Amino acid sequence: MGKIQLKSVTKAFGGVKVIPNLDLDIEDGEFVVFVGPSGCGKSTLLRLIAGLEDMTSGTILIDGKDATNLPPAQRRLAMVFQSYALYPHMSVRKNIAFPLMMAKMDKAEMNRRVENAAKILNLADYIDRRPGQLSGGQRQRVAIGRAIVREPAAFLFDEPLSNLDAALRVGMRLEISELHQRLKTTMIYVTHDQVEAMTMADKIVVLRAGNIEQVGSPLELYSRPRNTFVAGFIGSPK
Ligand code: ADP
Ligand code: MG
């Protein structure tokens, strides 16, 4: 559950190769962070994994099975969007349940999952409120809850904290790390924030112009950056 392999993946937009040729293995249960400057292809890579974007060429395996042509709903991956993607007119309960309602899940199972997610995320007391009546951190938790109820093989986060203020970001960073420890589900987390990368990741993938510059643990990248680009990004003294 949750092993993802990319093999010779390429992506071009109108003849421009944004991902020239990329190979990457993500192990089950790993917390993998994609870092790199704006425009280096982090979001594109995440969207290719999610199936929201078609690859130009290459293969993606999920748990050893070829998922290259599977639509997003059949990949069992859950994308966590920024908190402003919530439905303002729906309660927390309905926002969290939304993907299950779309999948026409039976009500008892749906309620079980929503209540479990609300408990994990400390949202039980807020379940009947609307997003407008919540703090920024609570709203971000609702967005995560919407992913949890799908019981995905992996969570995909695209800069989920970038619209939160600095203090809140630190708290949410810890909460997402704790959630990973609790669920032990694969998480792929995109950020351009090196502190997030260094503190959250089991494995960091440093991207530059759609190529992987280096892959390693935070400590490996800090102590043995391959080049000045990686060193500059990770903040190590090379
Ligand atoms: P990042 O998330 O690292 O900031 P993106 O993956 O969003 O980078 O973008 C990588 C490159 O691909 C950028 O040059 C961007 O302009 C281009 N790009 C992304 N999406 C599209 C699209 N739908 N059409 C054309 N170009 C795109
Ligand atoms: Mg992006």
UniProtKB/TrEMBL annotation:
Q: Which UniProt keywords apply?
A: ATP-binding, Nucleotide-binding, Transport
The transmembrane residues are none
Mention one GO molecular function: ATP hydrolysis activity
Stated membrane topology is:
Peripheral membrane protein
**Major location (coarse):** membrane
Coiled-coil residue spans = none
The family classification in the record reads: Belongs to the ABC transporter superfamily.
User: What is this protein identified as?
Assistant: ABC transporter ATP-binding protein
